[in-house]
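Subject: Impact N-terminal domain-containing protein

B.,
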Amino acid sequence: MEEKDSYRTIEEPTPGILYKDKKSKFFGYAFPISSENEVKPIIESLRKEYHTANHVCYAWQLGVTPTTYRANDDGEPNNSAGMPIYGQIQSFDVTNILIAVVRIFGGTKLGVGGLIQAYRTAAKMALENSSITKKRIESYFQLDFDYPEMDKVMRAIKQKNITITSQKMELKCSISISVRKSEAPQTQRFFEEMQRVTIQKEN
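Prediction pasted inline below.
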C-alpha cells in the first residue's frame, strides 16, 4: 500500500450551523485539532455556551496512517450520535478534526433512526460549511558537512527543489531540510551517496 504524503483538514473553526428536527435544535461545529488534549476544553466551552443543551455529542480523528479516532454519544442511545458524526469525517476524508453537535431538546422524541439522521446531517452541514485544505506530510533531515562541500550540497538542494528549514554555516555546516514524505527514501539515499556529507532523519 502506497503511503499517503498529503491529507485533508480544516485550518479554521467553523461557526455553529443550525439543523432543526421536530423542534429539537442541532448546532454543528467543526474544529481543527492537533492532539486529543484539545478536545475536552472545546467540548466544555460548548457546554458553557449552551447551558440548556441536553447533549454535546462529538467525534474526532487524528493522524494519517495510522489514524486514531473517538466517537462520543454523550448520553444519547448507543451509536446514535458519535458514530454518525464520525461517518461524516470519513465521508469527507478529513483528519486532525473535531466535529461537535450540540442538541437542545424540543419536546418530541426522534427515535434512534431520527437521531442518527439529525446528528449525521448537522455534522455534514458543519463540514460543508468549513474550508477544507490539503496539506503535505513532510519528512525532515539534517545534513552535516565541512564548509568546502557547501557549493555541492547547495546545488543539490536547489536542483531537487528541497526546502531548507534552518541552516548553520561555519567551518562545520549543518542544514535542516524538509521533503515530501513520499520522496524521503530517495532523498536520503541521494545524500548518503554524496562523499563527505552525512544525513540523518529528524523526527
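The domain at 137-202 is CATH 3.30.70.260 (Alpha-Beta Plaits).

T.
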